[in-house]
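// run 5 | inverse folding | seed 20
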């Protein structure tokens, strides 16, 4: 890090960000996919410590057979844990359990100086808060400690509903908050008049 390129250094994890946060124009890029070790796991608390390059497919393979799953699902299993923290990703259960950052206990972060600091809500708090959803601008995430959740089995019960209009969409979502763990909807943005907001709602447990 101390010998960094004059145009800067950026960290690249799984490359699944919807934006261009991990694209570099003439500088250097740190690839973190080889930081892929799951370092420890406590089956009582669900607490996991892993390298930032571990992706969600790795987590599924390791923990689902033991009855655990990550609390927040990325849109693809290729997202890394470091990227999930840096973007503070959300899922279809955000209304119930929040974003990925809600389940992170601490991170080890390499600053631009090369110094590695541990940051949490109790230690180096400003660094933790700035790094959560900070898209890597505070440094490179090296390790993450977070909690996985116990699940009864490795499958979901999903149903689909046709939605007539925007009022129907909002009302159905509000009612489903108390009966379902996951809610995901598509809206026909081209529909007009009385059909505006029509779509399909996916509900899951």
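// decoded
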């Amino acid at each position: 890090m101390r010998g960094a390129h004059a145009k800067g250094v950026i960290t690249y994890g799984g490359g699944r960000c919807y934006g261009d946060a991990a694209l570099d124009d003439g500088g250097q890029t740190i690839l973190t996919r080889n930081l892929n070790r799951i370092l420890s796991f406590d089956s009582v608390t669900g607490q996991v410590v892993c390298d930032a390059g571990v992706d969600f497919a790795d987590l599924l393979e390791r923990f689902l057979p033991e009855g655990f799953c990550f609390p927040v699902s990325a849109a693809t299993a290729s997202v890394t844990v470091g990227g999930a923290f840096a973007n503070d990703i959300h899922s279809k259960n955000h209304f119930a359990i929040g974003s990925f950052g809600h389940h992170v206990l601490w991170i080890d972060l390499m600053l631009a100086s090369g110094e590695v600091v541990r940051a949490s809500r109790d230690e180096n708090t400003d660094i933790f808060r700035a790094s959560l959803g900070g898209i890597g601008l505070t440094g490179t995430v090296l390790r993450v400690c977070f909690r996985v959740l116990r699940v009864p089995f490795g499958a979901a019960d999903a149903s689909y509903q046709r939605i007539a209009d925007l009022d129907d969409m909002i009302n159905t979502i509000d009612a489903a908050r108390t009966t379902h763990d996951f809610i995901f909807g598509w809206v026909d943005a081209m529909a007009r008049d009385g059909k505006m907001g029509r779509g399909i709602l996916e509900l899951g447990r």
